[in-house]
Amino acid sequence: MSYTYILKFFFKLLLLVALLEVSFRVLVPASELPFYVFDHKDNILKYDNRKQRDGLFTSGSLAEIRSRWHVNNIGWLNDRDYTGSGDKPVIAIIGNSYIEALPVNPDRNLTSDLQQQLGNKYAVYSFGISGAKLSEYLHVSRYVRKHFHPQVMIFNLVDDDISGSQLSSDNKEGNLYFSYSPSGVKESFVPYIPSKIGLYYRKSALLRYGRFNNGMFDSGKSPSALSRETKSNYNKEFTDYAFAKIRLENPGCAVIIVIDAPRRDIYQGITEKKNDELRNIVESASIANGFQLVDLTSPMTDLYSNNHLKFEFETNYHWNEYGYRVVSDQIYKKLIDSGVVTHRE
Amino acid sequence: MATLQENDFIDYLLNNGKPTPDKIMLFNSPKFFIFLPVVYLVFFFVGERARWCVLLAASLLFYATLHVPYLIAVLISVAMTTYVFGIWLDRAEYPKAKYSLLWTGISVNILILVVMKYLPFLSENLKALSTLLPFDVQIQPVKAFVAIGVSYYVFQAMSYLLDVYFEIVEPERNFGHFLLYLAFFPKLLQGPIERAGDFLPQLKKLQVPCLNQFRSGMLLIIGGLFKKVVIADRLSLFVEPVYSNVHNFSGIYLLLATYSYAFQIYYDFSGYTDIALGTARVFNINLTPNFNSPYLATSVADFWRRWHISFSRWILDYIFKPLQMHWRNLKNRGTALSLIVAFLVSGFWHGANWGFVVWGGLHGLYMACSVFYRPYQKKLHKALGIEKTTLLKVWQIFITFHLVCVAWVFFRANSLADAWYVVTESFSGYGDLLKLKQNLEVLSQNGATLWEFNIAVLSIGLLLLMTSLAKRQHLMTIFYSKPFLVRCCFYYGIAMYLLLLGHFSNQSFAYVRF
Predict the structure, then answer these.
(1) Predicted TM-score of the model (pTM)
(2) Which of A41, A88, A157, B290 is least buried, going by the fewest C-beta atoms within 10 A?
(3) A71-195+219-337 — its CATH code?
(4) Interface pTM (ipTM) of the complex?
C-alpha cells in the first residue's frame, strides 16, 4: 500500500466528515447550547450574552425535540430582559434545567405561563441554570435579592436537588455546595474553570451532535435521581440549613417551594409514596420557616388518571409544555390562595 | 468559603481506584478513533524494524489510559516471569527440571491471577464457611483489585509456557516482542486469546498491509462498531431494567429480556472482536476469529466450536484434553468428568461469582449428558420422524439455542436467587394485565420502546444481509470498482446510520470485566 493511498484515504475521510458536518446543520440539526460565563462581580455562573444570544436546542438522536432559546440582557435564559428598576413587584423562579426550560420554546415555559396568568402587574423572572442544586439555589437567591428585591421567591425542587448539594466528585464548576461536619453545614464553592476546548468543538455541528444529541462523550451514567435521593445521609441537615438561610436572608419575601411528583410511579399506577422521607423533610422545613409548599404529586396523579397525558417528553424527562402549564396552574393557585398576590384585574 | 482541592478532584476522578467507563479507551469511544489514526500514521511512516516498538508503545499507552498504574506493573511482571521461564524451559536438559520449571511458571501466573481477581471471592466464601466451625476465625474482607485484561494475558502466558514445554513453539528471545504478544492493544482488554505460535512470527516482519487487507480491516471495524452501538447497546435497553429487578417482572418480560440478552452479549462481544480483528489487520497482524454464527449451532459442543473460539480452544487443549487423557480408563465417565471440570474452570475464569460457575457447570453438564445421550440420538430422531430432514437441523438449533439461553440466565443475573426466579417464573404471570401494563411502562421509561425493538430487528437483518454479501468476493470487487461517488454515498449512509441510530453512551463492553 503506497503513501498515495494513505493520503487519498485521509482525504476521503475528510470529505465524509464534511458531508456529515453539512448533514448535522441541515438535515438533523445538532443542538446548540448557550455558553456559560462566570460573573466575577456577583460570583455567579450565568449565560454569556456576547458569544451567542440565540440558538436552537435539539434533543434526541433524530432531533425530535426542537426549541429556540434566547439569552437576555443580563445572562439568563428568557425572552424578556430583566430590569432591577423596581417598578413592578418581582416574582423570581429559581431552579435548574427545569426552570432553564431548554426543551420548550421560551413562550411555553413556566415563567411565560405564570406571567400570562398573573398579567402585567408583576414581573416574573426566571433564574434557572442546568445542573444547579439546592445549595446553588441558595447562592442564586442571594444574587436575586441583591439585584431584584423580589416579592416572591419560588424554588423548584426536582430529582436529586437536595442530596446533590453534597460536595462531591461530579460537582458542577462555578456552583455552591454543602458539606456536613459535626459542627454543622459548611458552604463550599467549586471554582469555575472555563473550557477552551468547548469553544472550538462547539463550532462543529458533527461534534455538537455527538456531544449533545448522542451522548458520545458521556460517561454512561444514568442518573436515577429519585433513587439516589434517599441515599444521602444529610438531606435533612442540608434542607434545614438552606431553608433557614433563605428565610433569614430574605425578610419580608414570600417563599414558595415546589416539589416535583414521582412521575414514573404515577404512570405505573404506584400509589404509595416511595419518597415520603424526603417529602417529609421538605414539608417540615417549609412549615418551620413559614414557606408555602406546592407538592405536585396529587395534582399530577389526578390529572394523569383522568387524561393519561404525560408531563414530560417521551425521550426527555424534563417537563413538556403541558407539564409547565400544570406546574404554573398549581403555583398560581398557591399564590392566590395564600394571598401573596392578588387576582389578575 | 472553602474550595474543593485539586487532590480531591484527582481522587474523585480515579473513583477510589476504580476506572469509570469514561476513563477506559473503549473501542466505541471517540478517544479511540483519535488514538487509532495517530498510531497508524506513526506505524506507517516509521521503518519496518521500529514498527513493533510503535505498537508496543501504543499498547502500553492504551493500557495506561485506565489510570490504574499497578496494571502496567502486573502486565510487565507477567511478561518478564513468563519470558524468563520460557528461556529456562528451553535451556533445561532434564525432563524433571523442565517439568518443575513449567509448573513453577504456571503457578506464578495462576497466583497473580488469583491475587488480582479472586481474593475477595475467596475471603468472602471462607468467611461464610468459617461460621460453620465450632471456634471463631477472623477473616477480614479483601478489597478487589482492578483486573481489566489480566485474565486474558495470563492465559496467553500460560499457553506460551505449555507450548514451549511441549516444543510447539520456540521461546521468544526478544522481550519487546514477547511483551507485545501479551499487550497488543486490540486484544488486550477482551482477547482473542492468541497462541504464541500464531502471533509472534507476524512481528518478525511488520510490513504495511496491502490494499485489500487494509480495506477488510476497515470494514471489520465498521461492522464491529455497528454490532456494538446499533444492536447490542439497543438490546441492553430490554435487558437492564428487567435483570436489575427481576422480581417485579412478569414471565413474558423475563423471556424477552433473556432472549435479548442472548443477542446482546453476542453482538457486544463479537462487535468488540471484529473491531479488534479489524484494528490488528490494518497493522498487518491477523488475530484468531472468535465467532462463527454461534446461534446456528446444532449442539452445545457445536456451540463451543463457534463461540469465543480462542478461549474454547484454550480450554480444550490445556484443560479438557489432559484431563481426558488422565481419566481415559474411565471411558465415557472420564470424558464426562473432564468436560464438567473444564467448563467449571471456564465459568470461574469469567469471574469470581457463583453465577459464572453455575453457567460453566451447566455447559459442562450439557456436554457430559451428550456423551451418554449420543448413542440414542439417532434412534430418537428416527422415532420422531425427523431424521434426514431440514426440520432436524431447525429442531437441533432451537434446542441448542434454548439450552444456551438457560445458561445465560445464570451468567447475567445479579444473584443465583434472581437467576432461579427467572428460570422458574418465565412462564407465569401472563394473565396479570395490571402487572403487564406496569412492566411495559417501566420498560418504556427506560427507553425500551417498540421503535427501539424494531430498529434492533431491522439492524440485525441488515447486518446479516451485508455480511452474506461481503462474503461473496466478486460482489466486493464490483463494489470497489464503482466510481468514488457511489462508494462515498454508501459510506455516508453507513456513517449516518451509525450516528443517528447508534447508542454512543460509552457503555462498557460486556467481556471487559472478565
Answers:
(1) 0.83
(2) A41
(3) 3.40.50.1110
(4) 0.79
